[in-house]
Amino acid sequence: MKKTDIKIVDIKKSFDGVDVLKNINLEIKDGEFFSILGPSGCGKTTLLRMIAGFISPDSGSIYLGDKDIVNLAPNKRNVNTIFQKYALFPHLTVYENVAFPLRLKKMDEATIDLEVKKFIDLVDLKDHIYKKPNQLSGGQQQRVSIARALINKPGVLLLDEPLSALDAKLRQNLLIELDNIHDEVGITFIFITHDQQEALSISDRIAVMNNGEVLQVGTPAEVYEAPADSFVADFIGENNFFNGQISEIFDNTYAKLKTEKLGELVFELDKPAKVGDRVQVSIRPEKIRVSKHVPTGLTEKYNVLKVYVDELIYSGFQSKYFVWINGDKNLLFKAFKQHAVYFDEDDNDTIHWDEDAYISWHADDSFLVEVI
Ligand SMILES: Nc1ncnc2c1ncn2[C@@H]1O[C@H](COP(=O)(O)OP(=O)(O)OP(=O)(O)O)[C@@H](O)[C@H]1O
Ligand SMILES: [Mg+2]
């Protein structure tokens, strides 16, 4: 085990009789960009503050390398935290804010100067070095926090929604910068967010949490393409769900699904299930093709449904279709459609709302969510 590998073992915590963390187990590797993703109130901050040492667990261990750090004071842990709010000293310049941790350590002036300039450079604030926090934008202030947290050279950096106070564009930019900084310093980042796009775009691996539990740990592609259960499938990205009973398994990895209202559908059997099981299956909106006529040349591994277009939302790079099957409002599917001349000609016939159309998708693009 490396010195800064983190291992969280059977961590439990309750507040006022409510279980906020229920038996959390996680392993975070040295140098990883690891995100903890989950809805508000699921226990993310509690877990992070526990790693930082501000909250003690009711039971369980947290290993940093081979050492259980549960009883160590925060400043003895070789971890540093960046919070949602910048928490800078308002009366100090950028330079002095970043220098602060080194002054506490009573380093000599020449070393401090060298280090401070290096880290201010790293977060790209050279031109703002003698400004005070109130003369900086939100993004710049957060970059000061990052420099100040890194200057202590922690083995692990904990980031609790550091971008959430910023507007969308700035968030994007700072996210890319954060990724570059991570590459440059090479230490472990544990990044908390409730924004799935943020987590997907930046992480080596993601832990998806809900209700004090970790539901899945995996790479962005794994949690998106093969979600462990319906919560993950629904929380990350958008999805269409349908239930039915497996009536046949063919070619080893495909199954036919007998549904009550959608007829027979085929899907890829990517989790263990057998004929007769009742299952939930899903197809993501971007994997559905919307066309005016029945598409030609489809094999038995495609699903085709006739639909009624109830609503369509144009958003520039794509249109989002809300369609009903068999005129039944409860059988709502969402489908995204991109526009480009080089796509199938039929696809380019404009499909309006209050018209009939067809949706189709390949079995490989849908997946079994869970056996129910
Ligand atoms: N000190 C405390 N005393 C009592 N309850 C607490 C305390 N700290 C947190 N909680 C509760 O624990 C639950 C988890 O809180 P936590 O702050 O970890 O959530 P979170 O996932 O970080 O949410 P958010 O995305 O909104 O920041 C919440 O229901 C919260 O009310
Ligand atoms: Mg929080």
Describe this structure in words.
This protein has two domains: 6-235, 3-Layer(aba) Sandwich (Rossmann fold), CATH 3.40.50; 240-371, Nucleic acid-binding proteins (OB fold (Dihydrolipoamide Acetyltransferase, E2P)), CATH 2.40.50.140. 24% of the residues lie in helices and 36% in strands. It contains nine helices and 20 strands. The chain has helices at residues 44-52, 94-104, 109-122, 138-150, 168-185, 196-202, 220-225, 230-235, 345-348; strands at residues 6-15, 18-28, 33-37, 59-64, 67-68, 79-82, 156-160, 188-193, 205-210, 213-218, 240-250, 254-258, 264-268, 278-283, 289-291, 302-314, 319-325, 328-337, 356-362, 366-371. The strands form four sheets. A six-stranded mixed sheet has the order 6-7-8-3-9-10, with helices on both faces. The protein has a five-stranded antiparallel sheet with strand order 13-12-11-14-20, with no helix packed on it. A five-stranded antiparallel sheet has the order 15-19-16-17-18. The longest helix has 18 residues, at 168-185. It starts with 5 loop residues before the first strand and ends with a strand.
Mean residue pLDDT? 91
Strand order of the largest sheet: 6-7-8-3-9-10
Estimate nothing, just give the exact number of structural domains.
2
* Strand fraction: 35-45%
Give me the CATH superfamily of the largest domain.
P-loop containing nucleotide triphosphate hydrolases
SS elements, strand count: 20
Please give the CATH architecture of the largest domain: 3-Layer(aba) Sandwich
